[in-house]
Every structure is written in C-alpha cells, then in structure tokens.
Design brief:
It is built from nine helices and eleven strands. The protein is an alpha+beta fold. Strands 6-7-5-10-11 form a five-stranded mixed sheet, sandwiched between helices. Helix 1 (about 15-40) packs antiparallel against helix 2 and helix 6 (about 185-195) crosses helix 7. The longest helix is centred in the N-terminal third of the chain and has 30 residues, at about 15-40.
Length: about 300
C-alpha cells in the first residue's frame, strides 16, 4: 500500500507571530507563578511595612515593568511610603475588605499599562494583603506603646529613642536643630479649682495649639505631667524663638472650655539649639534650665538656654 505523504506546510509570518505571542505568554505565566511563590515566602519574613513593600516592588518587576510605587494609608497615622521614580502613567489599587481599609498603592511608569499587565498585577496583589495587614497591626501596637493616651503625643520612652538620633543627624549633616521645653503655668491650681477633667482638656488644647503652629516634621513629646518637649528640625535658634513666641501667644489668647467656665492658661518655654559638641543630655539640660528661668522670672515667657 502506498501512502501519500503531504508536503510540510510552510509557516506564515502570521503563524510565527501567533506562536511567538503564545510562547511569551507561557513564559510570562511561568514567571508569574515563580514570583507568586517567592512573594508568598518572602512576605512572611518581616513585619516592617517599608521592607514588606520593598520586597513586593522588587518582585513584581520580574513580570511587569514598574517605575515607582507609592503606598498611603487614610487613617490618623497618615503613613506614606514611596519607592522608585514616580511617572505619568499610573494605576491605583485600594487595599480593603468589607470591614476595613489598609490604604492604597499606586504603581507608575513612563508608558501606559496594558490590560494583561493589570490582570497580572491584580493576581500578585493577593499575596500582599494578609502580610501587609499583619504589618500594620504590629505597627499600630508599637505606636500605641510609644504614645501618650491622653494627648496622643509621643511619650517619654519614644523621646529617649528619638532625640538622640535627631541630635546625631543634626551634627552629622551640619543642620540646625532646636528644642523647646514647655510647661503649663499654675497647672495644679487648674486641677484643684476646676477638676482633673478641666486639666485634661487644658493639656489637649495645648497640644492642639502646638501642632497647629508647628510643621508635620516637628516632633512633640509629653515629657511628664504638664511638661512637653518639642523638637524643631532644621530650625536655628532665632527660628525656634519665633515659633516659641507664636505658641506662647496663641495659648495665652486661648480659653479652655469647662462647662460654663472659660479657663485662662499660659505657658513658660525654654529654648535650646544643638551645638556640634552637644550630647543629648546637655541639650535637654540647657532647655530645662531655660524653662526654670522662665518660671522664676514670672512665667508666661520665653528664656534662652544659649
């Protein structure tokens, strides 16, 4: 029996392109699977939000070109983390469930994202959800331990950790940095006359005024009782005195509401600026001595620790 052999068909350019596209798709799917497996493992290795996002950002670029990433929360913490270079074309993903929101992530690059890439990214985001949730929960617990529950300022433990770092950064980069030591005048009489709820409200109002005057980069700590310490980054001594006077004047003009009563409160302030030879304790000591001078000189005034 003779079998007729059909001549082999020649592959057209169209067929070659289709085969190439199919091959690329298979390779992409394989890389996507590998990246998903690595992400699932590596995202379990840290509870630090920034490190977590860095792992995610690095790995997704194995399958989709991404120029930059920005993560932001919409809670009171206002956490914002950015990596890479931010570009014109962007896609934003809301990270949320039916009961909570974990903010949003924006990816960007210089050319438009295509539909297939967006599908890949959406699949990879599923590996990020629970590790990010765990990281934010851990961050909230750490933050709560370092915050004063009444005034929502940083507490003394947080100050001890932070102030030394700020002093070293100031000296290393030769940048000005100043601190203010603030103390409410005759605070005990407020508690004795109007009650502790009035005293609590006076502390809260004072903090709100200080935050209203200062920049977001400045750091406010409850030093103890009715005493606060304010770190003014990139602020020389003259600038610190100007800010201190704004705070003093605004507090003096403010009345604390307590039932039918309006309580007048004033504040004394000591100012000290970081020197190249300063240790943290020396800087705080100068501000504290300046505050003492403001107190013994009649209160409701500012003294310099220079």
């Amino acid at each position: 029996m003779v079998t007729t052999v059909q001549p082999r068909q020649r592959v057209s350019l169209k067929d070659a392109k289709s085969f190439s596209a199919f091959t690329n798709l298979v390779k992409t799917q394989e890389r996507q699977k590998e990246v998903r497996q690595r992400l699932t493992a590596q995202l379990q290795t840290t509870l630090d939000v920034e490190k977590l996002l860095n792992i995610f950002y690095r790995e997704i670029q194995q399958v989709v070109q991404v120029g930059g990433i920005v993560y932001q929360t919409n809670d009171t913490d206002h956490l914002s983390i950015s990596m890479g270079q931010q570009n014109t074309h962007r896609c934003t993903y809301q990270l949320s469930s039916e009961t909570e929101s974990m903010g949003e992530i924006t990816l960007s690059r210089s050319k438009r994202f295509i539909e297939e890439e967006l599908t890949i990214l959406e699949g990879l985001f599923s590996t990020l959800y629970f590790p990010l949730k765990n990281s934010l929960t851990y961050r909230a617990a750490i933050t709560a331990a370092r915050k004063d529950p009444l005034t929502n300022t940083w507490n003394r433990a947080a100050m001890d950790e932070t102030l030394s770092r700020e002093v070293e950064l100031s000296k290393r980069h030769n940048l000005p940095m100043s601190i203010l030591m603030l103390d409410l005048d005759h605070f005990k009489s407020v508690n004795d006359r109007f009650g502790h709820s009035a005293g609590d409200q006076a502390l809260k109002d004072t903090v709100n005024i200080i935050k209203d005057v200062c920049r977001q980069t400045d750091l406010l700590f409850r030093y103890g009782g009715e005493e606060f310490l304010l770190v003014l980054n990139k602020t020389d001594h003259n600038g610190a005195q100007i800010i201190a006077e704004r705070i003093r004047k605004k507090i003096e003009q403010h009345s604390v509401k307590c039932g039918e009563s309006d309580i007048e409160v004033t504040v004394s302030i000591g100012v000290a600026s970081c020197r190249n030879t300063d240790k943290t304790e020396e800087l705080v000591c100068r501000a504290d001595k300046a505050l003492y001078q403001a107190k013994v000189s009649g209160r409701n005034q500012i003294k310099s620790g220079e």
